[in-house]
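Example record

One chain of 440 residues, shown exactly as stored in the release files.
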Amino acid sequence: MTGLFDGTFARGDAAAAVSDAGWIDALLDVEAALARAAAGLGLVPTTAADAVTRACAEPAGLDLASVVAAAADAGNPVPPLVRVLRSAVGERDAVAVHVGATSQDVLDTALVLLARRALAAIVRDLAGAAEVAAGLARAHRDDVVMGRTLMQQALPTTFGLKAAGWLSGLDGARARLRAVDGSLPVQYGGAVGTLSGLDGAGVALRTALAAELGLAPTPVAWHTMRLPIADLAGALGAAAGVVASVALDLVLLAQTEIAEVAEISEHRGGSSAMPHKNNPVAAISARACARRAPGLVATLFAAMEQEHERAAGAWHSEWPTLTDLLATVGSATAWLAESLASLQPDVARMAATVAAADAPALAAAATEALAARLGRGAAHEAVAAAARTARETGRPFADLLAERGDLDPADLRAGPDVGEAGTQVDAVLADHDARTGGFP
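Predicted structure tokens for this chain:
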């Protein structure tokens, strides 16, 4: 039975990649690759390695229920999995199972494989969201929208520049995840990292295992130096932050009082009590999933403090935490891609809001006009004083500025100034197009 909240918090392909079945597949892939690598170095017979590979490729034929049942008592699922594999291939070929490895070697390498598979899904969804953001930036390059700072109306900008900001963040998050993905390392060191019992072939076997799995080799095991996990956590946390920021913009812009964008979907947005509502469910769900990431990242960073050659507890805490982090960031990115794909901007509403909010444009124009005579600082203070008086007395801001006598009325009728917004949009789009050539 699917979990009640899986539709929200297990969205997209990343969650499927880190399922229990995904974990089992990754563990078996490591054992099979280790057997092949050992055979390639002449450490075990090729026929034995082939038998292990076949057994790992057919998990339905293995007693995985006993692995699950015994995992807690064993401290992790690798010892019972090794017993099941040895039983499956028989005594003769069991020599190719778990060659020279410790449980952490297999589990850490499986976790890295699992992360790589989930990252592929996350990167795809980020790419989808980025493409929509790029389309919005192009289509609305010069459409004005009110800029807001500290949740208050500030100065006009363009919706194209806002979308370009989203695009830049999404591409940046994707680049960071790709960099981490490319550096994910194999784990192999044996019981205490010495590679003992392999007759001097341990380093070569670690290199061969890395090649089998397409992972980076390492000069030494990282059993208690958890930088690879920290790198993953940091990049995933940053991606979640970018997704959350974009999603929050969408939620705020979709508020009834703002109504500058809307999610349009036949399947989402309704209310159980208010039939008139159109809730931005995809953006809300993206925020909900992304909100879970910081705590998970913090747990992984806290777990970096590990003792001697094997941590007693900190290492164990990483398994479900990183699994959940991959799933929740994957869900957040999947939701954001859906939100942006269903987004309908209301450029007329945006322009009307800018036109109705004359104070920002008046203040900017008056400050520029007065700066030539009073200096920038004095001009700023003079206009700020007029704005305060307008708020305190309820008198029109424009009337108070006009009463100064040193401002030409023509200076106060300037249209919205969006500066170099368009140029910056073009630069972000050019960077995106250049990046896309190197992204999947």
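Notes: The two ends are 34 Å apart (CA to CA).
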